[in-house]
Write a structure and sequence with these properties.
Order of helices and strands: EEEHEHHEHEEEEEHEH
InterPro entries: CMP-NeuNAc_synthase, Cytidylyl_trans, Nucleotide-diphossugar_trans, PseF
Number of strands: 11
GO molecular function, one term: N-acylneuraminate cytidylyltransferase activity
Strand content: 15-25%
Oligomer: single chain
Organism: Flavobacterium cupreum
CATH superfamily: Spore Coat Polysaccharide Biosynthesis Protein SpsA, Chain A
Distance between the termini: 33 Å
Protein name: Pseudaminic acid cytidylyltransferase
Largest sheet: 7 strands, mixed
Shape: globular
Radius of gyration: 19 Å
Pfam families: CTP_transf_3
Number of domains: 1
CATH topology: Spore Coat Polysaccharide Biosynthesis Protein SpsA, Chain A
């Protein structure tokens, strides 16, 4: 089996400028993803898909390849992760390189470990999923979610307004770290998460969505706490 790791890292981050190479506890945040992928020993190639020469230089420094620069279309604010994957696969096919499994690993995912990558790949292979990715349990039941209607607050799901939290079904959200894919199946279905996807469950301290500067600081605090308990 041939495996490729794709790390998407465009240069045009809006909410946190230069987010993908911003220093995270002493080194560019993208370095954590590159090192986790390389150290896992799972990949025939670890590549960074970018439109930015500085990101490409840093990616090379930490051991990733940048065999092609991303096109303008795949670098726009409207391009999806799937668009990037499709483009990278087509670029490799053009030089007669094909892969059985692809892992799309985000550049701002310092909590990813080689063990989690290995565990997810094993699940993908043995259970014949289309894709596998990490999820985090919601800290509070989504069935008890509230919404504002004008100046009044109401339940999204009034039928659960009197339910005990412990009686409600557990819910999860995408950790936003990586996706292992059977690439042929996902390309055929034109999506990453299908009706045949699996997951590994991680804790709230093992992940952090990083969309603003407060998120960034929380991620650093969580990372340091995890390191101190190992």
């Amino acid at each position: 089996m041939s495996n490729l790791c794709i790390i998407p890292a465009r240069g045009g981050s809006k909410r946190i400028p230069r987010k993908n190479i911003k220093p995270f506890l002493g080194k560019p945040i993208i370095a954590y993803s590159i090192e986790a992928a390389i150290n896992s020993g799972l990949f025939d190639e670890v590549m960074v898909s970018t439109d930015d020469s500085e990101i490409a230089e840093i990616a090379n420094k930490y051991g990733a390849t940048v065999p092609f620069l991303r096109t303008e279309k795949a670098s726009s604010d409207f391009a999806t992760t799937f668009d990037v994957i499709e483009e990278v696969v087509a670029q490799y096919e053009a030089i007669n390189r094909n892969f059985d499994f692809i892992c799309c690993l985000y550049a701002c995912a310092p909590f990813v470990t080689s063990d989690k990558l290995s565990e997810s790949l094993k699940m993908l292979e043995t259970q014949e999923y289309d894709s596998v990715f990490p999820v985090i349990p919601f800290g509070f039941p989504i069935q008890r979610a509230l919404k504002l209607e004008g100046e009044k607050i109401n339940f999204f799901y009034p039928e659960f307004s009197l339910s005990r939290s412990q009686d409600l079904e557990k819910s999860y959200h995408d950790a936003g770290q990586f996706y292992w894919m059977n690439i042929n199946r996902c390309l055929k279905k034109k999506k990453i998460v299908t009706n045949n996807s699996g997951c590994i469950i991680i804790s709230e301290i093992e992940g952090q969505d990083i969309d603003n500067h407060i998120d960034w600081k929380l991620a650093e605090l969580k990372y340091e706490l995890l390191q101190s308990t190992e």
